């Protein structure tokens, strides 16, 4: 049953509402678990847990936040973990080997220093193993080397095998399945994307929301990007009844025709123009409600590595408007041999009852005309510090993206959690237990995220 055929949260109370859609990352997440942690970590209290009448997943809830003098905010979770089947360790390791075999991993990648360190340690371990084998064979022969391996090596392998297998088949496998468009993975990829597009469709059809914000963490940022670009093609057209002057669209298409043409200091001005364009689009009947896309620890920073295919590079897919950039890429006319491009917003004729009106319509890659893209990341420090999964996106998906380097001020108890690899990757909304503190070059993660959501 579609959302329009049943009661919807807040319907009929006369208040405009905002919707926030949170998309979780890899791992065996539980329904609403990520959403509860998100609400608690950001200190969005009081928040009421209510039935989620938008989704068909009966395990899910929505969290509603009410603040005096402000529009109520409903937070939803796009839960997709149940669509991700288990992979074998061989599949995951083969995928990792294919990525590591690409030259771009070792040259210019944000994780290049970490990979170099891992490769160095692996080389040293291999050299030590060879040395032990040679010395043991020299002293006791081949039989001694084969029958008497060091006890601690055997014990370590026995203890690590279950944990490593679980990590490969139930966690990293999520990324392998979603990011690899091979025939065995197509059904899962389609199911995840279809559910995301349907959620956006229902939020738009509900008739009670005037803004939607999409937040994607880790692999969830890739899923959010996909569902937005797919739904944009369904919700980018103005209506005949509201067609009229579009000065914002006209000037936007001229002023921001180059996706790589913005300087860092111009991004805030650009995002202000994006919001003005969004308001104008809404006034002209464009049903698109999404004002902001927020990514946290996004692997899209490694776009050329994870999105290149044997058929087309990331750059080729961006040129073809298959993968939208920010600012939008102008349309390429296949008939032109000199790569001439039309503006990202083109003139179209709307017809109804024998009448005609002109309107500017964003091309199918103009998603980030009216939608702002803000990316939060923990900078990698001293090789192992920070979040190597995430990073800056402006150099990969367009200079209109606002990259914000963040830090976390809370304490970590117990102390040994500081030694956990990728700890920062899970701390974007970790709760604070002491006052905020300033650090040069970065902003505090939790207050920054609250501000972006309009909940500070």
Strand and helix layout:
Elements: E1 17-23, H1 33-41, E2 47-51, E3 61-65, E4 73-78, H2 89-100, H3 103-106, H4 112-147, H5 151-179, H6 186-205, E5 209-217, H7 219-232, H8 247-255, H9 267-283, E6 290-296, H10 303-307, H11 314-319, E7 331-332, E8 341-342, E9 345-352, E10 355-362, E11 372-377, H12 394-397, E12 402-407, E13 443-444, H13 445-452
Parallel strand pairs: 1-4, 1-5, 5-6, 6-11, 11-12, 12-13
Antiparallel strand pairs: 2-3, 3-4, 7-8, 9-10
Helix pairs in contact: 2-5, 6-7
Tell me the number of structural domains. Answer: 2
Extract low-pLDDT stretches: none
Radius of gyration, CA atoms, in whole angstroms: 25 Å
> What's the tally of helices?
13
| Biggest sheet record | 9 strands, mixed
How much is the average pLDDT? 82
Classify the helix fraction into a percent range: 25-40%
Number of strands: 13
User: What share of residues are in beta strands?
Assistant: 15-25%
Write out the strand line-up for the largest beta sheet, numbering strands in chain order: 2-3-4-1-5-6-11-12-13
Explained architecture:
The chain is an alpha/beta fold. It has a 9-stranded mixed sheet, with helices on both faces. Strands 7-8 form a two-stranded antiparallel ribbon. Strands 9-10 form a two-stranded antiparallel ribbon. Helix 12 links the parallel strand 11 (372-377) and strand 12 (402-407). It is built from 13 helices and 13 strands. Helices cover 38% and strands 16% of the residues. The model has no long low-confidence stretch (mean pLDDT 82). The two termini are 36 Å apart. The longest helix has 36 residues, at 112-147. Helix 2 (89-100) packs across helix 5 (151-179) and helix 6 packs across helix 7. The chain has 2 domains: 1-86 and 186-330 and 364-456, no CATH class; 89-179, no CATH class. It has helices spanning 33-41, 89-100, 103-106, 112-147, 151-179, 186-205, 219-232, 247-255, 267-283, 303-307, 314-319, 394-397, 445-452, and strands at 17-23, 47-51, 61-65, 73-78, 209-217, 290-296, 331-332, 341-342, 345-352, 355-362, 372-377, 402-407, 443-444.
